[in-house]
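Hi all, posting the design record for the shared folder.

TITLE: backbone redesign
STEP: 1 of 1
STRUCTURE INPUT:
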């Protein structure tokens, strides 16, 4: 068995990843499947942290487009990420993992407040850390939260899980002529306006030379393959 290419990773999941075939909410079977892959990564000695979105429950930007106050809408979206983090934490615990949910919005009865040194200590002790509530501020996406947390815990890479096999020149679901891009730089992602992560997140990663691996979460075993450095998906690097 090959050694892992990364020691500490930040796995970025969309809220929609937990939906499965549903139109809304959380599919327990999908949560269980994702949890099993994360636990397998932990078993080979990698320290995984997770940031998960809330789009399967509530989208702040979509709500603000319908005349809801943007700050209120984003706060509701951040609370949705807490629900997802708790659901994934439960699935991980059922697979025998020790987890901690850390939130940017304080709610001590359900999760720990985010403290950088405490998060790093949890990872060093072998716990899987789930970061919830984004950055705790409106107008920032969970992509930006993932980039920020990755920098704070000194992660080696961001693993961006999607429903397609990496980065394409266009949406492969709708454009049959979309070309797969195996590797590119952060500045290329910004210049070509590729929908990898939002521009704030990409800029943060570029400034700190943090690589991003984009891969298909729906293919079983891809999380482990990506962590081992196998050529799955696409890589964005300096």
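Okay, here is what came back for every position:
SEQUENCE:
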């Amino acid at each position: 068995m090959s050694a892992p290419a990364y020691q500490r990773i930040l796995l970025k999941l969309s809220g929609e990843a937990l939906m499965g075939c549903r139109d809304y909410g959380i599919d327990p079977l999908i949560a269980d499947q994702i949890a099993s892959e994360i636990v397998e990564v932990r078993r080979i000695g990698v320290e995984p942290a997770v940031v998960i979105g809330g789009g399967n429950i509530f989208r702040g930007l979509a709500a603000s487009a319908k005349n809801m106050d943007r700050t209120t809408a984003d706060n509701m979206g951040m609370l949705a990420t807490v629900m997802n983090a708790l659901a994934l934490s439960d699935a991980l615990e059922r697979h025998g993992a020790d987890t901690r949910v850390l939130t940017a919005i304080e709610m001590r009865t359900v999760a720990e407040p985010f403290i950088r040194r405490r998060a790093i200590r949890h990872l060093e002790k072998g716990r899987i850390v789930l970061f919830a509530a984004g950055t705790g501020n409106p107008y920032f996406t969970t992509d930006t939260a993932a980039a920020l947390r990755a920098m704070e815990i000194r992660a080696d890479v961001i693993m961006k899980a999607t429903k397609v096999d990496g980065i394409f020149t266009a949406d492969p679901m709708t454009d049959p002529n979309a070309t797969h891009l195996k590797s590119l730089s952060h500045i290329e992602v910004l210049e070509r306006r590729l929908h990898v992560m939002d521009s704030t997140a990409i800029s943060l990663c570029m400034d700190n030379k943090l690589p991003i691996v984009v891969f298909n979460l729906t293919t079983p075993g891809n999380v482990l393959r990506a962590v081992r450095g196998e050529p799955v998906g696409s890589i964005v690097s300096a």
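COMMENT: The chain has eight helices and eleven strands.
Let me know if anyone wants the other runs.
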